[in-house]
Write a sequence for this structure.
């Protein structure tokens, strides 16, 4: 059973929307198909959780940047710069290194970093358009199917 089906089954068993704690609680059972997605060694899992918290802390830090004489905008203080991107969204791709965070001021002054960030922005934008285009088509098909029933 794949992770998607396991999550759908969990949601149906619970009879409501699921939250991360539901998933962890289910996955604690070694027989759960979700069990393999988690690190059950408390020491390494704690380290991973701390790294996740650290990444969150880095992402929520903001600075004000003057974009024109009369306008200042609040942006993330650090930009995640990846050396390269995985080619596909396989499970292995999700485990690829996340990149390094640089102060936005430093990124703006380094042509290579700017190039990488702009390329990532373009990939993110295209992925977002594709994601919501696919969702729109799926929702339209479901609504049409429901209306026909």
């Amino acid at each position: 059973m794949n992770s998607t089906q396991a999550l759908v089954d969990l949601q149906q068993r619970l009879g409501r929307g699921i939250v991360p704690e539901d998933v962890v609680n289910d996955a604690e059972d070694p027989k759960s198909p979700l069990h393999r997605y988690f690190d059950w060694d408390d020491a390494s899992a704690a380290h991973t959780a701390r790294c996740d918290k650290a990444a969150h802390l880095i992402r929520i830090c903001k600075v004000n940047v003057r974009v024109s004489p009369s306008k200042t905008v609040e942006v993330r203080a650090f930009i995640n710069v990846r050396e390269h991107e995985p080619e596909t969204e396989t499970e292995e791709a999700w485990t690829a290194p996340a990149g390094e965070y640089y102060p936005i001021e430093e990124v703006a002054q380094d042509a290579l970093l700017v190039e990488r960030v702009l390329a990532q922005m373009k990939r993110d934008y295209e992925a977002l358009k594709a994601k919501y285009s696919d969702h729109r088509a799926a929702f339209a098909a479901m609504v049409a199917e429901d209306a026909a029933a």
